[in-house]
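TASK: fixed-backbone design
INPUT:
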């Protein structure tokens, strides 16, 4: 058992060491320790060499050391102090120095820098000696208790870090493998979380009729709570869209998942729920795009490398409200059309980011190469874009690019 284990407010001191070359001085200190702490084992050393052997023993640990700074027999007190403090097991052991009445201030200052906790000058009164020893004990007990609490906090933090990494891994595994290709649709995405896990997510779902739905969601905040909400939302969206439900029913199921499946994580009492999302369902057979935006930044629809429409949010800024759904819009498209969607990590914290991103890399690139790029390549472009603007992507950043290509191009 080490010092940190048994030195606390509920456990008495068990063993002390008194180092002084005068037996009379050691007797006085022994009497004070016995009166102050009761049944305590007290070792004595009349010279530095014997004291060094005692503190170096792996079988003996001291809860308190009283050291005569002026001990000169077979060594000196300062060197003994350095040895005590050089041992990890002795770094928390309180050391009270006793000095002569004419001790040099420089020597006392040096001893305190070497690790002594306090000092007292002779002649020593019993009352002051007892008070100094009691004060050092209380200070050390509080320090050890704080260290113990810190250790518990660190253990909890380590477990939380493992859990967050596991959630982050589950988020990555649950997402459709990108880039995604179905019929004449190509889609890729970049998701850069602010931490191990986040509330940003995207996916591509193909239903029984061959329609592909692109999903992008943004849950306010970071960490495990937002990831839980995001997972519940994404699960509801996947089920509804894969089975071909109408958008209105999909939104109803999503709201139900938020309120009933995320108790403790979602505010129901004061205004909008901080879950935003947009859905784009693409029907390659009829060349139609069904789109709904609930609180996400404007999406951009391109045709023949030209901006055709800005697909704005038609619900409150923070996304879904109970019973109030975004307007569902329909667009036709031709081959060569492309859709760009971004969360506020791109379009918010980076300013009018999506417009600038498209202009920087060119709509024609968005329509072809980026829709088939690996997510890491898109991540690099987003990071490069942020760096060029002098902005850090310290918020979650999500970019989804889909191109409706001719089958020959895909």
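OUTPUT:
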């Amino acid at each position: 058992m080490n010092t940190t284990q048994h030195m606390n407010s509920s456990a008495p001191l068990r063993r002390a060491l008194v180092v002084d070359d005068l037996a009379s001085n050691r007797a006085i200190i022994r009497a004070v320790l016995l009166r102050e702490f009761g049944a305590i084992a007290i070792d004595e050393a009349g010279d530095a060499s014997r004291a060094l052997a005692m503190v170096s023993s792996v079988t003996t640990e001291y809860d308190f050391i009283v050291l005569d700074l002026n001990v000169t027999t077979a060594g000196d007190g300062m060197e003994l102090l350095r040895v005590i403090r050089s041992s990890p097991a002795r770094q928390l052991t309180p050391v009270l120095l006793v000095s002569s009445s004419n001790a040099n201030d420089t020597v006392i200052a040096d001893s305190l820098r070497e690790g002594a906790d306090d000092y007292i000058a002779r002649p020593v009164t019993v009352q002051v000696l007892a008070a100094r020893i009691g004060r050092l004990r209380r200070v050390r007990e509080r320090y050890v208790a704080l260290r113990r609490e810190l250790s518990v906090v660190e253990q909890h933090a380590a477990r939380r870090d493992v859990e967050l990494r596991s959630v982050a891994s589950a988020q990555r595994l649950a997402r459709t493998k990108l880039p995604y290709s179905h019929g004449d649709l190509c889609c890729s995405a970049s998701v850069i979380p602010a931490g191990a896990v986040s509330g940003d997510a995207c996916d591509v779902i193909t239903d029984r009729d061959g329609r592909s739905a692109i999903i992008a969601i943004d849950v306010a905040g970071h960490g495990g709570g937002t990831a839980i909400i995001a997972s519940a939302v994404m699960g509801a969206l996947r089920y509804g869209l894969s089975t071909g439900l109408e958008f209105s029913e999909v939104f109803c199921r999503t709201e139900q998942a938020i309120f009933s499946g995320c108790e403790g994580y979602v505010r129901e009492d004061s205004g909008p729920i901080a879950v935003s999302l947009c859905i784009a369902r693409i029907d390659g057979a009829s060349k139609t795009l069904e789109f709904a935006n609930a609180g996400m930044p404007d999406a951009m629809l391109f045709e023949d490398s030209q901006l055709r429409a800005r697909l704005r949010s038609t619900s409150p800024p923070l996304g879904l409200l109970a019973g109030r759904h975004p307007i569902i819009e329909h667009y036709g498209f031709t081959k060569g059309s492309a859709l760009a969607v971004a969360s506020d990590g791109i379009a918010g914290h980076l300013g009018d980011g999506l417009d600038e991103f498209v202009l920087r890399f060119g709509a024609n690139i968005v329509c072809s190469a980026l829709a088939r790029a690996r997510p890491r390549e898109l991540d690099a472009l987003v990071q490069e874009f942020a760096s060029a603007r002098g902005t850090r992507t310290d918020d979650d950043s999500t970019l989804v690019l889909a191109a409706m290509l001719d089958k020959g191009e895909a």
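COMMENT: Confidence is low (pLDDT under 50) at residues 1-10, 264-272.
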